[in-house]
PGG domain-containing protein (Morus notabilis), 200 residues
Amino acid sequence: MPPDFFARYNYKGETPEDIFTDTHKELVESGCKWLRSTSESCSVVVALIATVAFATSTTLPGGTNDDNGKPTLENHPAFKIFAIASLIALSFSVTSLAMFLAILTSRFQENYFGKVLPWKLLLGLTSLFLSIASMLVSFCAGHFCALRDTLKYAAFPVYALTCVPVTFFASAQFPLYIDLIHATFRNPFGEIRSKLDSSN
């Protein structure tokens, strides 16, 4: 029987896993608190986006035709953009909400912080950003359908200004997003190998 099949203990009778759990207890607790607070805050935002996206997708700009029930602006390009963007916003907001709820109901074990939790947080934040962007596109397209004869080309600078808050929010969260991508897709064996090569 190979000796690696048996657990190895130190003089206190602790295995390497027990030592790792004991030495990283405070780090796990702080990580749990940060993940819970982040997931709770994002869940509130995503729930509001999902509510607005659902209400927007069921409210058609221009109304419907009384004869056949079809939208009066169904052949307008802005209406098609509105319909697709509202559906995308609703889908991504529900996906993001499911990811954040999965984080809140997670067991927060040490091995979950390696891949499971970063994956869920990365997918939740990505879906959150896409849902916000899609909601803004849907909002602008719906207003353009209603005010296309009044604003015309002056509407484009106004709609561009509505993207400024989202740009500030995305730029503030960009470092966290990059760290999540690095933590999720990194290769630990490649890092260890590079450190060994540099030491030699």
Remarks:
- Residues 25-58 form the longest helix (34 residues).
- Confidence is low (pLDDT under 50) at residues 188-197.
- Residues 144 and 153 are 10 Å apart (CA to CA).
- The chain has one domain: 12-186.
